[in-house]
Design a protein that fits this description.
It comes from Streptomyces griseus subsp. griseus (strain JCM 4626 / CBS 651.72 / NBRC 13350 / KCC S-0626 / ISP 5235). It holds the Pfam family Transglut_core. By secondary structure, the protein is α/β, with parallel strands linked by helices. The chain has a single domain, classed as C8orf32 fold (Roll). 34% of the residues lie in helices and 14% in strands. It is built from 7 helices and 8 strands, in the order E-H-H-E-H-H-E-H-E-E-E-E-E-H-H. The strands form 3 sheets. It has a 4-stranded antiparallel sheet, with helices on one face. A hairpin with an 8-residue loop joins strand 5 and strand 6. The model has no long low-confidence stretch (mean pLDDT 94).
């Protein structure tokens, strides 16, 4: 699938906003720490991007798995609380990537429950490394039994592969900022239980 930039200006995928607040000291501190470890690699930018992905995937718990009732949506808050659902974790990863000059945006899948019902939007990250010439999607949701997402720029290793026979679909758009439907859902939820009851079914 060819990914399509929502904005033709690549600088839009390096910008800070209210959610992807990569200029916040907390985001900068985490980015600096991850970059120090990555600088020993021969391809430091790739190593940093992989380290940022693995940090958000593994060190920031998916609240639906952990049972944490808190709702986070700003990248700085996600990194401070170390919790969030897929939307929040994707925002945090996009912020960490942008903090080190790696263009990053947000992508979405439309998924359904195991019974083929209950549609829901799932959040991913798209990044573009220097010289790559294309966007690649990664899924920082967090692994669990049956989910094994990996950092791979060649062959996608996402948490879920869409099942077209159930009406699931990959969204090709790389959003420069979280869509309003996503932000509205995150901001309005008083706790995770309310959030999970009101996840958007479409953008």
């Amino acid at each position: 699938m060819e990914l399509i930039q929502q904005s033709p200006d690549l600088d839009a995928y390096l910008a800070a906003d209210e959610a992807i607040d990569h200029e916040h000291p907390r985001v900068r501190e985490v980015a600096t720490r991850l970059a120090l470890d990555a600088d020993t690699d021969t391809d430091a930018v790739y190593a940093y991007a992989r380290a940022a992905f693995e940090f958000v995937r593994d060190a920031v718990a998916h609240s639906a798995d952990s049972g944490d009732p808190r709702v986070t949506w700003r990248a700085s808050d996600v990194l401070a609380a170390r919790t969030g659902i897929c939307y929040a974790k994707s925002i945090a990863l996009a912020a960490l990537l942008r903090a080190r000059g790696v263009p990053a945006g947000l992508c979405y899948q439309r998924l359904v429950g195991g019974d083929g019902a209950t549609p829901v939007i799932h959040g991913l990250v798209a990044l573009r490394l220097p010289g790559a010439g294309r966007w690649a999607r990664v899924d920082p949701r967090g692994n669990k039994p049956g989910v094994d997402a990996r950092f791979s720029l060649e062959e996608e290793r996402l948490a879920w592969v869409v099942r077209e026979e159930f009406g699931e679909a990959d969204g090709p758009v790389v959003h420069a900022a979280p869509p309003e439907a996503i932000l509205r859902t995150l901001r309005s939820a008083r706790d995770r239980s309310e959030l999970m009851r009101n996840l958007p079914a479409s953008l």
